[in-house]
Amino acid sequence: MSTATGSDQQGYFPRWTLKTSGVIMPEERLSWGQTVVSGLQHCVAMSGATIIAPLLMGFDPNVAVLFSGVGTLIFFVIVAGRVPSYLGSSFAFIAVVIAATGYAGQGPNPNLSVALGGIVGAGVLYGVIALIVMWSGVGWVERLMPPAVTGAVVAAIGLNLAPVAVKAVSGGAFDTWVGLATVLIIGVVAVAAPGLWRRLPIIAGAIGGYLLYLLFANGLGFGKPIDFAQLAAAPWLGLPNFTTPTFQADAIFLIAPVAVILVAENLGHIKAVGAMTGRSLDAYLGRALFADSLATIVAACGGGTGVTTYAENIGVMAATKVYSTLLFAFAAAVSIVLGFSPKFGALILSIPGAVIGGLSIVLFGLIAAMAGRIWVENKVDFANPANLITIAVALTAGAGDLTLKFGAFTIGGIGTATFGAIILYQILTSPLARRAG
C-alpha cells in the first residue's frame, strides 16, 4: 500500500504524484482523464441523496447542489487536501426542519428562512464542538458516543423519518404502486445490474420510477400528469434562488441539537476512511468537524441544507480503491456549475411525489439499517444491559417521535433519542450504577 512521502509534508497541500494502477492514496492522483471520469462518478454517487433531502424539506435542490460543492471545497481546503470526502445534504435535519416549519411535504417550504436560521445554529454549535476536539483530542467524543450509542442514534433517525416516506406513497393506489415499483427497481439494480450501475441504484430507481410514472400518468391517464411547463421555460444558465436565514429561538432550539448527530456521523466516516487507507486520520478529525460546521453555516446563509460527509462516496472509494482527494475537488466544481443551471433544478422538481416516496423508503431504511453495521463491526455486546436498554429506549423514542417540551423549548424525536441515548448510557455505565449492580 502506498504511503505519504516526505515531500508530501513540505507544503500545506500534498504534491499529488501520478499513479495509474493499484490503490491510489489521498496524496496520489490518476491521469487527468481518469480524474475527470472518477470525479463524475462521485457526483453521481452523491446526487441521489443530495437532491432528495432538499425536496423532502421544501428546499431548492439547485441551491443544495451548489452548496454541496462549495462545502466540499471548504472541507478540502481546511483538511489540507489530505482527507477524501464529499459533503452532501444531511438527512439528520429533515425531521426537525419539518417540525420547525410545519412543512406539508409538497412544493417550496414557505418557512424556509426559519429553518435556515436553525441550521445556522446547528452549524455554530457544531463548530464549538469541533474547536474543543481540536484543543483536547477525540478521546472524549469516543467515550461520550461509543458504537452502541452512535448506532442507536443512526437507527432512530431512519425510523423517525419512516412516516414521511410512507405518507409520500399513500396519496392513492397509483402512487403506492409507483412508489413500490421504484423500490423494486432500486433493489434489482443494487443486486443484479452490471458494472457501474450496481453502484448507482438510487439514480437508477429515480430514472426508472420517473419513466414508469410518465408512461402510466401522462400516457395512459392513471394519475396526475407531470407538468413540463416549468422545465421548458427554465433557462440553461441563471442564478439560483438564494434565501437568507431568519433567526427564531424556538426553531434554533429544535434544530441546533442535530450538531451532535453530525459529529457522530463525521467521526464514523473519518474512522471508515482511515481503516480503508490503512492510516489513522484522527489528527485531522478536529479540522474535519470544523470544516463541516463551516460548510453547514455557509450553506444555510444562502438557502442550502446542512451538509455532512457522505457514506455514498465512501462506498465508491471502497469499491474502486481510489482515495485521491483531487477527485473531490473536481466533483465539487461540477456541482457548483450544476447549481447555476435552472434547467437542472426544474428537472429535479418535476420528479413526482410517488417516486420521491419510493426513493425515501429505501434511503430512510438504509439509514436505520446502517446502525446494524455499526453494531456488528464494533462487536457491540447486546448481552450487556447498559447497551441493550440504551438502544431500546433510543429506538422507541425516535420511531414514536417522542417530543419533550420545556416551556418554549421543544426537542423532537430525533433530539430526544440522541440526547437520551447519550445521557442514559453514561448513567448506566457510571461507577455508581456498577456498584449498585
TrEMBL record:
Keyword Signal part of the UniProt annotation: no
Domain of life the protein comes from: Bacteria
UniProt entry tagged with the keyword Membrane: yes
Topological type in the membrane: Multi-pass membrane protein
Gene Ontology CC annotation, any one: plasma membrane
Cell compartments where the protein resides: Cell membrane
PANTHER family xrefs: PURINE PERMEASE C1399.01C-RELATED, URIC ACID TRANSPORTER UACT
Descriptive protein name: Pyrimidine utilization transport protein G
Species of the source: Bradyrhizobium forestalis
